[in-house]
Design a protein that fits this description.
The chain is α+β, with helices and mostly antiparallel strands. The chain has five helices and three strands, in the order ααααββαβ. It has one domain: GMP Synthetase, Chain A, domain 3. About 55% of the residues lie in helices and about 20% in strands. The protein has a three-stranded mixed sheet. α5 links the parallel β2 and β3. The longest helix is centred in the N-terminal third of the chain and has 19 residues. The radius of gyration is 17 Å and the shape is globular.
Length: about 120
């Protein structure tokens, strides 16, 4: 255990305070991914791995694009995603430009056969 710990500290010299600060700054994204993992656990146990992997792939693509990352924030109340039988159901309230981009990304994600768009535009109340 001591060798592993010292090797890890040499290869990744991050203090506990630095790691805690990073986690605090990214808490919405971390809580969003943790919530998704908790919601997917029963589906994985039941053997529904294809839709879980597809939903994870879609969430990762949206999180990787800076234009759509804020839509996934748990604190933002923005985008809701669920994939069932290859159909990506998108819901929530988003800005019109983000709305179009999210639908385009979902349509281009492998494993998604169809997109059910239930997103409302945040600009229209």
């Amino acid at each position: 255990m001591g060798i592993l710990r010292s090797t890890f500290r040499r290869t990744l010299p991050v203090s506990r305070a630095g790691a805690a600060l990073w986690a605090w700054q990214h808490r919405h994204e971390i809580s969003g991914w943790a919530g998704w993992a908790a919601r997917c656990a029963p589906r994985l146990v039941a053997g529904d791995t294809r839709d879980v992997v597809t939903e994870g792939r879609l969430r990762a693509r949206l999180a990787g694009d800076p234009r759509t990352r804020s839509a996934l924030d748990a604190g933002g109340g923005g985008l809701e995603i669920e994939v069932r039988d290859g159909v990506a159901a998108l819901g929530g309230r988003l800005a019109p430009d983000a709305h179009d981009l999210v639908v385009d990304v979902a349509s281009a994600t492998s494993g998604v056969r169809r997109v059910r768009d239930e997103i409302t535009d945040a600009g229209h109340r």
